[in-house]
Design a protein that fits this description.
mainly alpha; Arc Repressor Mutant, subunit A; 3-stranded antiparallel beta sheet; 6 helices; 3 strands; DNA-binding; DNA-binding MarR family transcriptional regulator; MarR/SlyA-like; HTH_MarR-typ
Length: 145
């Protein structure tokens, strides 16, 4: 059995994480640039991705979900509402509470964004079948439960 070098393992972890982080950040920047063509800001994207189609979320719950204060939620929802991407509606059981739902246009845009974001980067086509299989196996293990 091969003896492991803890120092080498630390170096490999560090170099691997740095490479993955730089790859993801470059992809993120490339995709954010594409968002601007659709008139969507990174904040809009985060909000749209967190809203579940056909499910209203109270404004207070959005503050927790988006990790921001209530005034920021109001500002974001106002922006999205002006773009026709969300609607404010009364809560089904408590009319004092406003919920935010994706509009039909918001659902379409969210679907398009997800489709675009789940398209694999072109560089993955350059990997060998064996490398792609290994990356798939490892990325599956790294997913949070």
């Amino acid at each position: 059995m091969e003896e492991r070098d803890p120092g080498r393992d630390d170096q490999l972890r560090s170099e691997t994480w740095k490479g993955l982080y730089e790859f993801f950040m470059a992809e993120h920047e490339r995709r954010v640039e594409a968002l601007t063509e659709l008139g969507v800001s990174p904040g809009d994207l985060k909000a749209l991705m967190r809203l579940v189609p056909d499910r209203g979320e109270p404004m207070r719950a959005l503050a927790g979900m988006w990790r921001c204060d209530a005034s920021t939620v109001t500002w974001i929802v106002d922006r999205l509402e002006k773009q026709g991407l969300v609607e404010r509606q009364a809560h089904q059981t408590d009319r004092r509470v406003k919920v935010v739902v994706l509009s039909p246009r918001g659902k379409q845009l969210r679907t398009r964004l997800l489709d675009d974001f789940y398209q694999p980067p072109a560089i993955l086509s350059e990997l060998s079948g064996a490398d792609l299989e290994a990356l798939h196996r490892l990325s599956t293990r790294l997913r949070p439960d």
